[in-house]
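Incident log, structure service

09:12 report received: a user says their structure output differs between two submissions of the same chain.
09:20 pulled the input from the user's history:
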Amino acid sequence: MSTKITGVGSFIPSGIAPNNQFENHSFYNEDGSLFGHENAVIIEKFEAITGISERRYIKNELTTSDIAFFAAQKAIEDAGIDKEELDYIIVAHNYGDVKHGDHQSDTVPSIGSRVKHLLRIENSKCVAYDVLFGCPGWIEGMIQANAFIKSGIAQKCLVIGAEALSRVVDQHDRDSMIYSDGAGATVVEKTNGDSGIITHSSATFAYDEAHFIFFGESNNQEISDTRRYIKMYGRKIYEFALNNVPEAMKACLEEGNVSIKDLKKVFIHQANEKMDEAIIKRFYKLYGKTPPENIMPMSINKLGNSSVATIPTLFDLVKNNKMENHEINKGDIILFASVGAGMNINAILYKV
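09:34 re-ran on a clean worker, output below:
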C-alpha cells in the first residue's frame, strides 16, 4: 500500500508584472533612508541574483481561497474522482484571504472550509483545514495526508498550496519584487503498488531562526502606515537554506535506500534562482558529485515566488509537458524539497 498522487492542477494568474513595473517605485532601506541607487540598477542586480524577470498577480476581485478552488477543480478532474469521496482537504497558505485594498487578513472560516464550500461538497465527513508552515506548507500537507492514509484514517485527500503575496508586500521594500501569486493542488490516494511517497523529512528550527521571516512596518517611515507587510532577512535565510535543505534531502534518500544517481528530477521551492542552484550543488557535493543537466526544473523566471504554490505548480507544468527539456515518466524517482518561514524545511522522496 502506498500514497500516490493521482491528480494535479494549478492556477497561474493572468496578470503579468514585469520588472520594469518597479522602475517608478521609491525603495527605502530598513532604517527608513532612501536607497542609494537608481531603480534601473536595483532591478538589474535583482534579476541577476533571483532570476526573476516577471511575476504573476491575481485580479482585484480574487482572493487566495478563490485560486485555491481553481487549482483544486483541476486536480479533482485530473484524478477522475468523485469529490464527495474526499476524506480531507488540506490547504497550505500563510496569509489567508486579503481582499484588494483591504488591510486585514481574513482566516475565519478557514481557507480549507471556503474551498470545500466553493467545491460544493456535501459530505460532512470530508474534513477541511489549513496548514501554516511557511513556504514548505504544501509538502507538509502532503506529509500529513500520507500519515492519514497510512494509518487508515483516509483513502483520498486533496492537498492545496495557494498564496496571494501581492496583497502583503511593502512596495517600498526591494524584496517586494520577489513575491508572486498562484495555486497548485494534488489529489493523493491509497493505492496498491510501489508508486507513491517513499520517505519524507521535516524539521522546524526556531531557537534562533524563528523570525528570519516576519511581519513588519513599511520601509518608508515618512508615511503614516499602520499596516504590516511580509519581511525577511535574506542573507540569513540563504545561509540557513544552504546549510540545512541539502541535509534534509540526503536524509530522504538514505532512509529510502535510493542512490542519488537514480534521481530523475528535484523540485525545489522557487525562492531564489541563485539559492536553489547553490542548494542543488551542495546536495550533490554531499555525495562527491555534480548535478546532472536538467535535474532541477525552474519556473521562477516567469512566475516569481508564490510561496506554498511554487512546487505543486512546477510539478503540474512538468507532469503535463509544459516545460522545455523536462519530463517525468512512470517509475521515475523524484524529490520535493522546500524551506521557509518558521524556519521550516522538509522533503519528500517519491516514485512516479
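09:41 both user submissions now match this output. Likely a transient worker issue. Closing.
09:42 reviewer note: The mean pLDDT is 94. Residues 234-255 form the longest helix (22 residues).
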